[in-house]
Amino acid sequence: MTVLEVIRAFAHSSAVGVVVTDAKSERPGPTILYANAAFSQLVGRPIAEVVGISPRFMQGRETRRPALDQFAQALAAGERFHGYLTNYRADGAKYVAEIDCRPLKNVEGRVEYFLAFEREVVRRRGRPWGGMASRFEAATVSSDSLTPDLKLLGAFERGDCVSV
Q1: Cα dihedral value 150, 151, 153, 159, nearest 10
Q2: What CA–CA distances, in Å, run from 13 to 26, 29, 126, 144, 147?
Q3: Which residues, 6+ apart, have CB-to-CB distance to 32 below 8 Å?
Q4: Which of 28, 47, 81, 117 can pair with 74 through a Cys bridge, CB separation 3.0 to 4.6 Å?
Q5: What are the residue ranges spanned by the domains of the chain?
Q6: pLDDT tens for each residue of 110-134
Q7: What is the value of pTM for the model shown?
Q8: What count of other Cβ atoms lies within 10 Å of the Cβ of residue 108?
Q9: 62: which DSSP letter?
Q10: CATH second-level architecture of 3-153?
């Protein structure tokens, strides 16, 4: 069983958007190799339309360059990126996505893929109580069985995040 087959089995029906790309961080890459239905719903495009293109299609006028640069630097260094980006759906609607992207390395330690968990977030009402991550909360709450597994992986953990 390949890594992509394991991820497909793991994430197929998850309520959290899951995307796997190749490891090419320079333009026009990376290229989406797998996306689940939750990601398709998040971006407003069919899975068949997003597989084979770069996730850059979600960027738009209000997507902040500094956050994108930090994202690109993390990928180029083979490191995790956890942050918030303003993205756009197929119909042009703007949304804020929390992205937790991690490198998947082969046995030699070379990055083969990037695995990203993505969900829509909204600004908290009232005064934030912590760092950048506390300014946002998930737009929908899931009782998905994947949620405990994501907690074990430390996905969406609060910590140093790049903000919109």
Answers
A1: 120
A2: 30, 26, 34, 9, 12
A3: 19, 20, 21, 50, 51, 52, 53, 54, 55
A4: 81
A5: 3-153
A6: 999 999 999 998 865 555 555 555 5
A7: 0.76
A8: 6
A9: T
A10: 2-Layer Sandwich (3.30)
